Amino acid sequence: MSVHLRAGRWLPYPVAAGARLRLLCLPHAGAGASAYRQWGAGLPSWIGAAPVQLPGRETRLGERPYHDCRALVTDLAGEVAPTLDHPYAVFGHSLGALLAYELVRELIERGCPPPARLFVSGRKAPQLAETLPPLAGASLDELADLLCRLGGTPRELLGDRKVLALMAPVLRADFAVNESHRYASHAPLDVPITAFAATADARASVADVAAWGARTRADFRRHTLRGGHFAVLEQAPRVTALIAGELAPWS
């Protein structure tokens, strides 16, 4: 049976006709749904990429961004839950990995069907203590320094103070979301998890990412990519092929 999902505020792109499984994609800090538009085009036709659009960016630029993780996850789950009448999986990168994990927990607590698999990348497991300094109130120079260390942002943009000032409000809001998260000890998920690590990720080491294995009682797999924080987006063909392989039972 094909997945039929119309576009909306939170899910701005309609899922391709013929898809039998939907892959919800949660973006990294400062990013919007478009970050996954081209990336998702590499998935086989039976997987429909469904990038999530958070408030405060792109098509929702005029809306106030969230600053609290629990409020964001609660509202997102309320939007997603009514659409879960077909198989689905969830993918999140960096901040998106944390949101993806908490979204899955919230949906299961609401009695929704669990996802076929949870995919995370570029973030240490949630039970590990955060080591980054607080960034919700970071100056433009501090934001530029962080983005430079993580990579993925053109240097000409980082050197343009006007552009950086436009990016700053949603970046600070997303960092506030990350900093508001409080891990509470709870049972591991009965959902298989795949974690993508990168060898030179300044945000999460390979060991940090491997610790996601403690968050599931089901199958856990880790794939290591050469590169930095955004390797999972920069190496889209390899990553989408791995995702498709692990979701093959639903093809």
UniProtKB/TrEMBL annotation:
<protein>
    <submittedName>
        <fullName>Thioesterase II family protein</fullName>
    </submittedName>
</protein>
<dbReference type="InterPro" id="IPR001031">
    <property type="entry name" value="Thioesterase"/>
</dbReference>
<dbReference type="InterPro" id="IPR012223">
    <property type="entry name" value="TEII"/>
</dbReference>
<dbReference type="Pfam" id="PF00975">
    <property type="entry name" value="Thioesterase"/>
</dbReference>
<dbReference type="InterPro" id="IPR029058">
    <property type="entry name" value="AB_hydrolase_fold"/>
</dbReference>
<comment type="similarity">
    <text>Belongs to the thioesterase family.</text>
</comment>
<feature type="domain" description="Thioesterase">
    <location>
        <begin position="22"/>
        <end position="242"/>
    </location>
</feature>
